[in-house]
UniProtKB/TrEMBL annotation:
<dbReference type="GO" id="GO:0019319">
    <property type="term" value="P:hexose biosynthetic process"/>
</dbReference>
<dbReference type="GO" id="GO:0050659">
    <property type="term" value="F:N-acetylgalactosamine 4-sulfate 6-O-sulfotransferase activity"/>
</dbReference>
<dbReference type="InterPro" id="IPR000863">
    <property type="entry name" value="Sulfotransferase_dom"/>
</dbReference>
<dbReference type="Pfam" id="PF00685">
    <property type="entry name" value="Sulfotransfer_1"/>
</dbReference>
<protein>
    <recommendedName>
        <fullName>Sulfotransferase</fullName>
        <ecNumber>2.8.2.-</ecNumber>
    </recommendedName>
</protein>
<dbReference type="InterPro" id="IPR027417">
    <property type="entry name" value="P-loop_NTPase"/>
</dbReference>
<dbReference type="InterPro" id="IPR052654">
    <property type="entry name" value="CS_Sulfotransferase"/>
</dbReference>
<comment type="similarity">
    <text>Belongs to the sulfotransferase 1 family.</text>
</comment>
<keyword id="KW-0808">Transferase</keyword>
<feature type="domain" description="Sulfotransferase">
    <location>
        <begin position="2"/>
        <end position="45"/>
    </location>
</feature>
Length: 103
């Protein structure tokens, strides 16, 4: 339900002062996303040795493998409930990836 709050942020801050990243995309391209964050924040680029250190760090928030897979009925119920909020978010960000149409 991010869209319920995002409108307020977008009314108060210019869009170029906000960076939106999806965790699913970050997991697929961690270095590229971290580069984007550093650039967005005006930070210097990391050296190759610094990148090696960062990328060698173990994940600290990985818990999904501790739980059973979601039931298809539960997923369908949640997708139906969140669909209007996701549509509003995708429209606000002008990015259909925020419709989360793929599992």
């Amino acid at each position: 339900m991010y869209s319920e709050f995002l409108g307020d942020w977008l009314r108060r801050f210019p869009r170029d002062q906000l960076l939106f990243l999806r965790n699913e995309d970050y997991k697929l391209a961690q270095k590229e996303h971290m580069d984007a964050v550093f650039k967005f924040l005006g930070m210097r680029a990391l050296s190759p040795s610094e990148w090696n250190t960062v990328m060698a760090m173990p994940p600290r928030n990985k818990n999904s493998d501790k739980y059973e897979k979601m039931w298809p009925q539960s997923r369908a119920l949640l997708q139906e409930f969140y669909a209007p909020f996701n549509r509003k978010l995708a429209d606000l960000l002008q990015d259909d990836r925020y419709l989360w149409q793929t599992p």
